Amino acid sequence: MTAPTVTDTRSLVVNGAFRPQRVTGQQRYAIEIADRLVRDHGFGEHAPQGGWLGSAVKEWAWTMLRLPSLASGSVVVSLTARSPFARRQVLVVHDLFVLTNPEWFSRKYVLTHAPTLRAQLRTASAVVAVSEPTAEAVRGRFAGKVVVAPNAPSDVFRSSPSAADAAATGALESRGLREDGYLLTVGSKDPRKNLPRLAHAYGLLPEETRSRFPLVVVGGGAAIYQGESIAWPKGTVDAGYVTDDDLRALYAGARAVVFPSMAEGFGLPLVEAAAAGAGSLVVSDLDVFRWICEDGAVYVDPSSAESIAAGLTAAIEGRAPAISIDLDRFDWNASARAVAEICTEVARNR
User: Fold this and answer.
1) What is the mean pLDDT of the chain?
2) CATH number, domain containing residue 219
3) How far apart are CA 11 and CA 224, in angstroms?
4) Which residues of 58-71 are buried (b: 16+ CB within 10 A; e: fewer)?
5) Could you tell me which of 66, 124, 154, 315 has the fewest CB atoms within 10 Å of its CB?
């Protein structure tokens, strides 16, 4: 998606530091919200350009050194962790894991991002959290106003293809999959995603079951996370990083989407899977997942491979409840309005 080009200095400005980054969960949130803030709510945007591009170090330097001068006198909304120190900033917090669970991240990431987040929570004018459980965690560390503006499924996932759709058929056939005949897990290879335990749990299923129902793993790694070796059992299909169209097709054809995370700030694959028409959900018993899914999922203990395996078996045997997520609760337009309203409030109270 092409970044808007904004050259004027308005009172409300999007921090576009996310624009050069690869699109994962935070960047998808930022793109969807930022585009609406600029298009529908009159925000300006500044993003790194020219010599500030080309490396994470340069782009961080732009965020910390150049953006404050570009946005001088404006309220800045920062939609990802790449945010400056600013008292006139509305800060979106996706999670607090770099503070609460630093062992999940590389030493370099913790040394740079933990003190930055603490400072931002001291200086921000207001915070937007991506779920109510995340908001509650933030309220324990931030004295100002906290509002909730959740993630939502993007349009590509809401327009679920039919079984006869050529693109959907190709996405499955190219990976040796059949509709309703595989399990799917989506997420970066981040320790909190709990993939080694999922691999163990899947390996507890009989080999004949794994032959009939492969486990498709979508997502890539990142240098910010602590590395770990995962021994995937026979039956696993490593799909790596896929396009949105292929991901939509994989969601739509899955018998179950599995998300056994140890912790999450939201859980974007859950609403994407619901929008695309996945068969069922097998998820960790986390407050945020119950906030999203209510009774429409199989809940498992993420610390127990046996519990996860039992959840997988329930889905395979057709004993999982139908997905019943109310997608009206998760809408990018509504979330963008909530962000715009708190930014406007901060601007008026200067």
Assistant:
1) 91
2) 3.40.50.2000
3) 34
4) ebbebbeeebeebb
5) 66
